[in-house]
Amino acid sequence: MTVAVDKTKCIGCGACVVECPVEALDLIDGLAVVDPSKCEDHGKCVLVCPTNALAIPNQSPKAKEELDPKAGSEFNINDPQPDAIKDYAQDNDKKTIRAQVTPVAGGDVWSGVWVIIEYTNGKVAPVSWELLGEGRKLADAIGCGLSGVITGHQIDSVIPEAFAYGAEKVYVIDNPILKDYRTEPYAEAITSLVQKYQPEIVLMGATSMGRDVFPAIATKLQTGLTADCTVLGIDPETKLLQQTRPAFGGNIMATILCRTRRPQMATVRPRVMAMPERVDGREGELIQEEFTLSESDFRTKVLEFINTDAKSAFLDKAEIIVAVGLGLAAKRNMAIAEELADVLGATLAGSRGAVEAGWLNHDQQVGQSGVTVRPKVYIAIGISGAIQHLVGMETSDFIIAINNDPEAAIHKVANYGIVGDLFQIVPALTAEFKKRLQHGVAN
Ligand SMILES: Cc1cc2nc3c(=O)[nH]c(=O)nc-3n(C[C@H](O)[C@H](O)[C@H](O)COP(=O)(O)OP(=O)(O)OC[C@H]3O[C@@H](n4cnc5c(N)ncnc54)[C@H](O)[C@@H]3O)c2cc1C
Q1: Do 250 and 315 reside in the same domain of the chain?
Q2: Is 304 a domain residue?
Q3: Pocket around ligand 1: residues whose beta carbon is below 6 Å from it?
Q4: Per-residue pLDDT reduced to its tens digit, 210-255
Q5: What is the reported pTM?
Q6: Enclosing H/E stretch for 354
Q7: Positive or negative, the Cα torsion across 326, 332, 337, 338?
Q8: How crowded is the C-beta side of 1, counted as CA atoms within 13 Å?
């Protein structure tokens, strides 16, 4: 006998998969599927299923009571469920996951790639444009349109920018309530647009605002969200969004799919995707929507802005970065790096090692738990190149690494890897740059 699945009741929560002691259950296209060759009728899956979608067919009442003396299953356990078993056998032969052709949520057609354009304090977060560039590739891979979404107040100047960076359509809600960012009004405004127009994919920068508002929107829409992605792609077979991000402390890259809910939502780290070409004068369709809620619907008010994040905001826009690591050995040696940074007009940053040693502030930390940077030149001094550091800087245009260990991982991402003692190399570089810059030599 094998556990049977009522597909009309299964919600794909995966509780049974976790509970099964013999790994006989799997989720395929968001539904529990039993491997009859492994199932031993333990019935633990039946007990944990929150929707009574599992049962052991033809189980005797006595056996049923032994399994769970308290519960009475709504599912008629004598109903044979041959479909589930048959489907598994067919799928298991091929070992493929079937494409989801019809979106599940709402049963309607969800189509299009949307980028939420972050506009606060009169400025657009540049990651919004980076995402329009990435969104273009995704939309082309799926064969759908690319749109931008702007919520805020007095946002007219942003609309032509969105078209210039590649949006074919721009959805706008312009209302005084949205003048300053607050979670609730922004989540309401964006959710109302998504519910009305049903995009398949919605992206936003993994900025403070994106990290705050996107979980609220995903919760309202009851869909999945992958935060802090560093790579996006489209599965050529299923057309699902492949959302890749570091996991387990950055030791592996996990690719996450949202198979059965819509839209597929992801936030993406700033400076990871390339900035697309800007085409001034490019035109598109503008869709303006009303904001139907009033101030009394919201519990929060903005009294004042206190900017505590000035350095990190600057760091992710820096064109030249001199970054230090524990190879510097002591805080007093920071002077070597500071002098090089001064000569080059560079911004000083560092590894988590250097931050934890107290040589730099946390907002100067580059990497997975710090800032992602993409400068024209990144000079890494005495940094080993741990994966958590690399994910924050490896897309820099030009990387120079100075490290006395020829095997250091930082050399693998560097355009120039200088193997040697930083206490000799950095002062020599500083002196040479100083000389050349004084004589007006650019290269
Ligand atoms: C969850 C998690 C998140 C993390 N997030 C981050 C993050 O955001 N950013 C980050 O940087 N790290 C992060 N880390 C820590 C990361 O794993 C490393 O421990 C850290 O990056 C190491 O810093 P480092 O390269 O300065 O030091 P080390 O690994 O100690 O490297 C020092 C390097 O200096 C070289 N060196 C020594 N003396 C000299 C010399 N005289 N001349 C030239 N070279 C010399 C050595 O060969 C060595 O390669 C994170 C870790 C975890 C678990």
Answers
A1: no
A2: no
A3: 249-250, 325-327, 351-354, 365-370, 382-384, 386, 388-389, 392, 402-405, 408, 421-423
A4: 999 999 999 999 899 999 999 999 999 888 999 999 877 666 788 9
A5: 0.58
A6: helix 352-356
A7: positive
A8: 15
| Residues paired with 285 in a beta bridge | 169
Query: Please, are residues 373 and 396 in contact by the beta-carbon 8 Å criterion?
Result: yes
Same domain, 43 and 141: no
Q: Which of 241, 263, 297 delimits the end of a domain?
A: 297
Closest residue (by CA) to atom 15 of ligand 1?
352
Nearest-CA residue for atom 38 of ligand 1: 327
d(CA 148, CA 172): 9
Q: How far apart are CA 42 and CA 47, in angstroms?
A: 10
> Ligand 1 centroid vs 293 CA: distance in angstroms?
50
- Centroid of ligand 1 to alpha carbon of 209 (angstroms): 29
Tally of structural domains, the chain = 3
Q: Could you tell me the CA-to-CA distances from 353 to 15, 330, 349 in Å, in that order?
A: 40, 11, 11
Pocket test for ligand 1, best of 271, 373, 384 (most atoms within 8 A of CB): 384
CATH of the domain at 374: 3.40.50.1220
Residue 17 phi, psi (nearest 5): -65, -45
- Model confidence over 208-219: pLDDT tens digits? 899 999 999 999
User: Which domain does 325 fall in, by range?
Assistant: 310-438
Among 351, 365, 393, 402, which residue has the most ligand 1 atoms within 8 Å of its CB, making it the best to mutate? 351
pLDDT single digits (tens) 283-309: 999 999 999 999 999 999 989 876 654
Whether 123 is covered by a domain: the verdict is yes
CATH code of residue 285 = 3.40.50.620
Same domain, residue pair 314 and 283: no
Identify the CA nearest to 253 among candidates 359, 439, 142, 394.
394
The answer to whether 314 touches 198, Cβ cutoff 8 Å, is no
